[in-house]
Amino acid sequence: MSSRDLILARVRRALAGAPDVEITRAYRGPSQTPGDIRLFEERVGDYRAVVHLVDEAGVPERVALSLAGRGARRVVVPAGFPPRWLAVADVEAVADDPPLSAADLDAVDGVVTTCAVAIAETGTIVLDTGPGQGRRALTLVPDYHLCVVRAAQVVAGVPDAVARLAPARPQTWISGPSATSDIELNRVEGVHGPRTLEVLIVD
């Protein structure tokens, strides 16, 4: 008998005859409450992200201004990102086909994406590799991430977001720029993700 078998046998003997105990789980479920765009804007800003609230017609100009302000000339554009949103931007759109290497991603000036859902309560953006989002590496390696969030994608809380997401899809949950305070409690940004996150909320 292995050590594992011995331990499991002892556990079974100890539990023999014990009554079944029903565990009550009162998890918070979806609220069905519309997401508060202003709250989302405030919470995203609390994470030191750059936030802009624009209307649909103003997205191309705001994207162009944001990329120009960043000095971004070569940006990764995942398949499915609306071309009209880049129509006036003076940039070279880099496609991820064939897949870019980590070195290639590190050499670009940034990445522009859409998202799957955004959470007002936590200021979190969730990507699930859907149209306009690309694979996870696209938003983890470049130093700058510009994400366009539609108002209809903003939900109230985490349970609402989970209810909209497909559990089998790879997900990236983003709450502000990448940051850590593990080293001597000094905040360091850009360690395991983009140093700068810019969010355009389309109302």
Automatic annotation (TrEMBL):
Question: Per the record, a Pfam family?
Answer: LUD_dom
Record-annotated LUD domain positions: 107-202
**Entries under SUPFAM superfamilies matching the protein:** NagB/RpiA/CoA transferase-like
Q: Which InterPro entries match?
A: FTHF_cligase-like_sf, LUD_dom, NagB/RpiA_transferase-like
- The name of this protein is LUD domain-containing protein
